[in-house]
Amino acid sequence: MRQNKFKATLLPVRNKLFRLALSITGNKEDAEDIVQDVLLHVLKKEDWEQIENIEAYCFRSTRNRALDMIALKDNQIESLPDDFDFPVQDDISKKVEAQEYIDWMEKWLNQLPEKQQTIFRLREIEELSYKEIASILNITEEQVKINLFRLRRRLKEYFDKI
Distance between CA 61 and CA 34 in Å, rounded? Predict the structure, then answer.
């Protein structure tokens, strides 16, 4: 019965958790590992069914683990794998264009305080409600709305500069 409740309650949010972790880490494998760790952690908790908002708990845990992973990776140097194949010329122009947009957006996001980055990702990428975001971050819905208003204004200002 416990596993049935786990499947019904937590597995439906797995994809949302993955997208959040991926948007923070930028790495598919890391995001998968983070989500697996979070879900395993919740399953191992004896009282997980007593948590008032389990979805918000999982989002908060995913966010924290992703940020921890980034902090760890900042101290490591990455290199290309030996079997890396460079893309053909036709693919490069499409990928460069897409990457330029992603880089531009990441550059803008990285200028923001961590809390605002998270609010933006949860609202604009994950499309969560104000109430869900407020619950995840332990702030009021009004604070979420105010932060989003300020973020959108900053985005417009940033866009006007370039």
Answer: 9
Residues 118-142, mean pLDDT to the nearest whole number: 89
**pLDDT tens digits, 67-109:** 888 877 765 545 556 565 555 555 666 666 777 777 777 787 8
Structure tokens at 125: 């990428």
C-alpha 62/C-alpha 145 separation (Å) is: 22
Pseudo-torsion of CA 73, 78, 84, 90, nearest 10°? 80
Cα dihedral 120, 124, 127, 129 sign? positive
CB atoms within 10 A of CB 80: 7
Residue count of the chain: 162
Of the candidates 121, 155, 127, the residue with the CA atom closest to the CA atom of residue 22: 121
pTM value is 0.54
Structural domains of the chain, with CATH: 1-78 (1.10.1740), 89-162 (1.10.10.10)
Q: 85-91 — which CB contacts under 8 Å span 24+ positions?
A: none
Tokens for 7, please give them.
């499947």
